[in-house]
Design a protein that fits this description.
The protein has about 130 residues and is of the alpha+beta class. The protein starts with about 35 loop residues before the first helix and ends in a 6-residue tail after the last helix. About 20% of the residues are buried.
Length: about 130
């Protein structure tokens, strides 16, 4: 986790540029259809909140497979969590052959709910 030098300094959210020739995204809500209560419901699960925070602060590439997160959960459980984030409009997923990769819809969420992603980035996960 990035260290802060002052109380007012926020962790830097990484919004990497979209590379050319990406596969089309999986079904997701249009930006104008993203609803705050749906986003908050998706982020109410601590694992999903961790996923989004890691994508915001630690992305190494434009999008990541679920293996990048290092989560010790069954594949079916992870599929459920990633689908919930995508259907809420928090993340965008694309199919690359047999794998799906995700990234946060930073511009869309900032347009709809300014400051929300800053709160996610500021969140400190519990040690469990």
């Amino acid at each position: 986790m990035p260290l802060r030098t002052t109380e007012n300094e926020r962790p830097a959210i990484k919004a990497l540029p979209e590379p050319p020739d990406l596969p089309p995204p999986l079904p997701e809500p249009a930006v104008e259809d993203i609803r705050l209560e749906t986003v908050l419901a998706a982020l109410s699960d601590p694992l999903r909140l961790r996923i989004v925070r890691k994508l915001l602060l630690e992305s190494e590439k434009f999008d990541h497979t679920c293996g990048w997160f290092g989560l010790d959960r069954p594949k079916s459980s992870l599929t459920h969590h990633f689908k919930a984030l995508r259907e809420a409009g928090v993340t965008r997923q694309r199919q690359y052959g047999l794998e799906r990769r995700s990234h946060v819809r930073v511009a869309d969420l900032n347009a709809r709910f300014p400051g929300l992603l800053d709160l996610v980035a500021d969140w400190t996960p519990s040690e469990r």
